[in-house]
Amino acid sequence: MKTKAIVLKQISLLLVALIGAIFINGCELTTKQQAKSVISNIKESPEVIAVRKTPIEKGVILGDLIDTGITDTVWEIYDPAENGNKYVTISGNVLYNKKLVVVKIQYQMYDDGKIKFNAMTYNDIPQDAANTAAMFSYLKKEYEAKGKIAK
Questions:
Q1: Are residues 93 and 121 in the same domain?
Q2: Is pTM beyond 0.70 here?
Q3: Could you say which of 32, 36, 49, 98 is the most buried, measured as most Cβ atoms within 10 Å of its Cβ?
Q4: What span, in angstroms and rounded, lies between the C-alpha atoms of 116 and 54?
């Protein structure tokens, strides 16, 4: 029990130090997404961890694929969302067709542990199946280019 309290205290101190360093050094958090990232990357929920570890094909884990092709990622859990379901949403930046795009990818969590792709947006505009497939194809190419899996 003491170990758990010590770890929680260390995480709290790390968070306070990190936020203090941002303000002391004059660095600005220019978006809400960056502010959320500071907090969400320190402590992740079991749902976020489950989605990150989801295999999407042989030798490819979703979290690794996302980390390779999308920058400034924020993983969030909506538990429960307005409709009573749990969702994990991944948002971040990607250079797509030579333009910076904020992409959001959402997965639905089921009580039995299953995880299902739900939706994708570019700059908050819902995308169809073709654009979704194109994004995942791009992410896989980035993943392969960085030597994560054999082509």
A1: yes
A2: no
A3: 36
A4: 10
Q: How far apart are CA 71 and CA 91, in angstroms?
A: 9
Question: What are the beta bridge partners of residue 91?
Answer: 74, 104
Count of the separate structural domains present in the chain? 2
To the nearest 10 degrees (0 to 180), the angle between helices 62-69 and 129-145 is 80
What does the block give as tokens for 5? 């309290």
Beta carbons within 8 Å of 61's beta carbon, 6+ residues apart: 52, 53, 54, 55
Rg, C-alpha atoms of the chain: 17
Tokens (6 digits) for 123: 């700059």
The residue behind tokens 């500071």 is 38
Q: Which domain holds residue 132?
A: 35-145
Query: Residues 109, 79: one domain?
Result: yes
Question: Tens digit of pLDDT for each residue in 133-145?
Answer: 999 999 999 899 8
Looking at residue 24, the DSSP 8-state letter turns out to be: H
